[in-house]
Amino acid sequence: MRAAAPGMRLTGITTVIDDSPVLHRLGLDVPAGEITVVMGPSGAGKTTVVRHLTGLLEPDRGTVEIGGRDVWGSGPDGLREIRNGMGVLLGGSSLFDSSLFASLTAYENLDYVLKHHGFGEAEREQRAMAMLHDLALDGVASSLPDAMPAHARRRLGLARALVADRPALILDDIDVCLDAAHSPRILAALAGWRERTQGTLLLTTHNIRLARELGDHLAILCNGRIITTGSAAELLNGIDSNEDFDHRFRVSDFLGPPRMADILADRERDRESRRGLQMTIDPMMVRAAIIGIVVVTLVVMTLTLAHLI
Ligand SMILES: Nc1ncnc2c1ncn2[C@@H]1O[C@H](COP(=O)(O)OP(=O)(O)OP(=O)(O)O)[C@@H](O)[C@H]1O
């Protein structure tokens, strides 16, 4: 039987690390069975949100819920159960970040996860081999993670998160995997996971195209707060570059003083839109509006005078 996809919710999250505020009153809803993409500039707090959701870092204030369960109020056993229900890929490309066992080969790393989730031997072999193939890792099945190139190690981390078809998936900064040669396979593997589990996926990325193609929902995180949420397709419609992204979401407003280049670019855009507006005003319409105002004023004055007399 397929496990139900959990919703995720962060409420009023405030986090201070080394006396520096990182998140402040952050709220985020991740609907069950859908894909939510979190975007925002470097240092905005995306990884910190992931660490709260995955039970790695307790916030100073606020609550984190997964499937209605309080992640930080469930005790060690509860936390373990919640963690068992999710596949996780942490940011960064080091061995530690990818949650891989250094002493196990690529194949054994996947087999370990599958055994932990109670799969029988035949299904373990079938699933591990299929996942290695899907993510172009056949050639390194017998290699230890340390001996692999960083991009392959990263894909193995993703394979580990996907292989047991858990109903929740949290992927921090998968951009590292998304080189031109491998991104179609990665997107296909994610689509396969989604089809099989109908699960909930939260991912963080800087990749606008990926967010638009994959995301149902988009949340923009800036300076430790969610500043915008909505449909990923609608919010990212027509955005092709980081400059477009910054302009639409006014990201630079949240990062200290604005840059002169942005101000000059805004002025130019205003000038252009004024020019566009002037061209769309029809002189006949202006004349008709003035005549209408004069007629209405005369009628009102006549009625007022008649009333006074
Ligand atoms: N362990 C830590 N010690 C000190 N500061 C930290 C630590 N972890 C995070 N921070 C600080 O918290 C802020 C948010 O970091 P975080 O990694 O969550 O941002 P991010 O949005 O994921 O960035 P990126 O897109 O570059 O991965 C940054 O200013 C960072 O320096």
UniProtKB/TrEMBL annotation:
A Pfam family the protein falls into: ABC_tran
Q: Which residues cross the membrane?
A: 284-308
Q: Molecular function terms in GO for this entry?
A: ATP binding; ATP hydrolysis activity
Q: Which organism is it from?
A: Actinomycetospora corticicola
Keyword list (alphabetical) reads:
ATP-binding, Membrane, Nucleotide-binding, Transmembrane, Transmembrane helix
Protein name according to UniProt? Phospholipid/cholesterol/gamma-HCH transport system ATP-binding protein
Q: Which InterPro entries match?
A: AAA+_ATPase, ABC_osmolyte_uptake_ATP-bind, ABC_transporter-like_ATP-bd, P-loop_NTPase
Q: Do the record's keywords include Glycoprotein?
A: no
Q: Which residues form the ABC transporter domain?
A: 8-248
